[in-house]
Amino acid sequence: MRASDLPVVVVAGSLCLAGLYHLFAAERSEQLLSKPEPIRMVGVVLSLLGAWCLLFPGLVHYLVGIPVLLSGLVRLLFPHRMIELNTWTSRYVHGVLMLLGALGCGLLLFA
């Protein structure tokens, strides 16, 4: 693993931890993520992670960085819209999707 892969590894790890949190503490994550302030904080973190990925040239960094950056900006700028969208699926489904995203990041790095 190269040092330039670190942002993608951090994104994958963050997705994995968030996915597990959504699965094992679904009610608490629902309470927490139904408020705009925590959504904005997640947006800041995702925006920074996405921008960090884009500092390194490479297809993997762009494939991970662009969606993460855009997802973060949407959460930062439109938290109420994200709260509304997140009610379309259960926290369990959201957790599984995050775990699949983490797996996808790992496959992109090591495949």
Oligomer description: single chain
Low-confidence stretches: none
The number of strands is: 0
Terminus-to-terminus distance? 12 Å
Strand fraction band?
A: under 5%
Largest beta-sheet characterization: none
Structural class by SSE content: mainly alpha
Secondary structure tally, helices: 6
User: Roughly what is the average pLDDT, rounded to an integer?
Assistant: 92
Q: What integer value in Å does the Rg equal? A: 14 Å
SSE succession: HHHHHH
* Helix proportion range: over 70%
The best one-word shape is globular
What is the element layout, followed by pairings?
Blueprint: H1 6-24, H2 26-32, H3 36-54, H4 59-77, H5 79-86, H6 91-110
Report on this structure:
The radius of gyration is 14 Å and the shape is globular. α3 packs across α5 and α4 packs across α5. The mean pLDDT is 92. The chain contains 6 helices and no strands. The protein starts with 5 loop residues before the first helix and ends with a helix. The chain is mainly alpha-helical.
